[in-house]
Amino acid sequence: MIKNRIKVLRAERNWTQVDLAEIVGISRQAVISIEKYKYTPSLELAFHIAQAFDVDINEVFQVEDNHQ
């Protein structure tokens, strides 16, 4: 599973889901789905989200190893 820190990063910047959606060019519903792990973004979208936060993609998304 790919975990994300989008909600935390948004809160640090006082951004709403709508703010992020507008910056990245997706719907608010897509942001909600990504935050709730109902949708995994494409690699391209993941990079766009990281760029919006001005951080490395690894600061936004992490792979959770379920095989331990």
TrEMBL record:
One family name in Pfam for this protein: HTH_3
SUPFAM superfamilies: lambda repressor-like DNA-binding domains
Domain HTH cro/C1-type: 6-60
InterPro entries for the chain: Cro/C1-type_HTH, Lambda_DNA-bd_dom_sf
Organism superkingdom: Bacteria
Any one GO molecular-function label of the UniProt entry: DNA binding
Keyword Transferase part of the UniProt annotation: no
Keyword Cell wall biogenesis/degradation: no
UniProt cross-references to Gene3D superfamilies, sorted A to Z: lambda repressor-like DNA-binding domains (1.10.260.40)
UniProtKB keywords: DNA-binding
PANTHER family listed in its UniProt record: DNA-BIDING PHAGE PROTEIN, TRACRIPTIONAL REGULATORY PROTEIN-RELATED-RELATED
The name this protein goes by in its record: XRE family transcriptional regulator
